[in-house]
Amino acid sequence: MITVSELHKSFKLFAKPADRLIEAITGRVRHSTHTALENISFQVGRGEVLGVLGRNGAGKSTLLKLMTGVLLPDAGRIDIEGRVTGLLELGTGFNPELSGAQNITTNALMLGMSHQEIEARYQEIIDFSELGDYIHEPLRTYSSGMIMRLGFAIAIHADPACFLVDEALSVGDGYFQQKCMKRIQAFKEAGGAILFVSHDLNAVKVLCDRALVLEGGRIVHQGDPEQAVNHYNRIMARQAEEEEGRLQARQEGAYGTRQVEIRHADAWGRRSGSATLGSGDVLEVVLDLEAHQALDDVVIGILIRDRFGQDIFGTNTHHHCQRLRLAAGERRRVHLAIGADIAPGKYTLTLALHSGDHHLDDCYWWQDGALQFEVAGYLEGKFSGLCRLPCQIALEDSTACPSPSRQEAP
């Protein structure tokens, strides 16, 4: 259905608009070259969904624009069987001064539909979008979510053979996103080919048969969706480390007597290998300690907080009846493992060193938000709320469905 071979695309970048005119008149080079895509090759068969992952600027949107004909490649081939439609950047192909109803006609014509096809599916498009009377209002009065509803409704009813989905889908509300996902799944089961670009890592795992990761305009990984997600997470973890200068920030944000201090700290998912992990993974925490004087009772404490600053879980070595003695100048590495059976979201780890049950008497080291991690998606069955709790249900005279087996971390 879709075959991309050795695709290449670059852009000329000018420091100021006048340089473009000077280069055109004089022939002197006044631009730098940015390679957006280089040697991109992949295939998508019938009834197959290929996920595309990559951080901002990796080349995802450029790839979709090339595949829809918005841009032309510098080199390489794109072969697509049948009609191609897609939901690219929000509002692409719409006229804000026209009503939603008028935009159905103009946008559908741009997608290759005939007037007869538009007339036959006109009401279906309106019904699917659920815009009601707003369909007759100017598009400039629409919210981003309403524009996404209309764009997806038109694209999916254009009877495409291949469907391209960009991150624009993420602006919709949860209900309509689920509706779109069900329609995409039905399109796949009917034999359609889908290229799915998203930062929703759980959706990539659930929906996609394969996935590729773009970095710097090149494919750096292609294969199983879960492995691709893990590779993408490692890229994002490296970016966070580089941009935030986390080690320096941690040292500057700590307080206490510093009789013993944390010289370095890191956290990652046991299965993901990065600071982004699935719910049900094990969070590995490694602390490098250095004592500046001899101490007989060093307690290591951790506290997980959510993005609102609420305490989610905390414990320390005193609660686990473990006692740590350190000599002056001694360095020690400590490993902690925490079962991350918590809901998707962003979290921080507060780290503490003290004596006894709490830090109020002898606080050697305390650092709020020393580490960050994100829970994205579920490794096991979904749940509502903040965390997974043991639950047993017994129903008499009912047919039980097999429950997903719990996968223990190695």
From TrEMBL:
**Entry-linked SUPFAM superfamilies:** P-loop containing nucleoside triphosphate hydrolases (SSF52540)
The record's keywords, sorted A to Z, are: ATP-binding, Nucleotide-binding, Transport
Q: Matching Gene3D superfamilies, A to Z?
A: abc- transporter (atp binding component) like domain, P-loop containing nucleotide triphosphate hydrolases
Please indicate if the UniProt record lists Endoplasmic reticulum as a keyword: no
The molecular function GO annotations come to: ABC-type transporter activity; ATP binding; ATP hydrolysis activity
Per the record's keyword annotation, is Iron included, yes or no? no
Every ABC transporter domain range: 2-241
Q: Name one GO cellular component term.
A: membrane
InterPro entries in the record: AAA+_ATPase, ABC_transporter-like_ATP-bd, ABC_transporter-like_CS, ABC_transpr_TagH-like, Bact_Polysacc_Export_ATP-bd, P-loop_NTPase, Wzt_C
Among the Pfam families in the record, one is Wzt_C
Q: Supply the SMART domains for this chain.
A: AAA
CDD domains from the UniProt entry: ABC_KpsT_Wzt, Wzt_C-like
PANTHER family reported in the protein's UniProt record: TEICHOIC ACIDS EXPORT ATP-BINDING PROTEIN TAGH
Would you identify the family this protein belongs to, as annotated?
A: Belongs to the ABC transporter superfamily.
- Tell me what this protein is called: ABC transporter
Q: To which species is this protein native?
A: Bisbaumannia pacifica
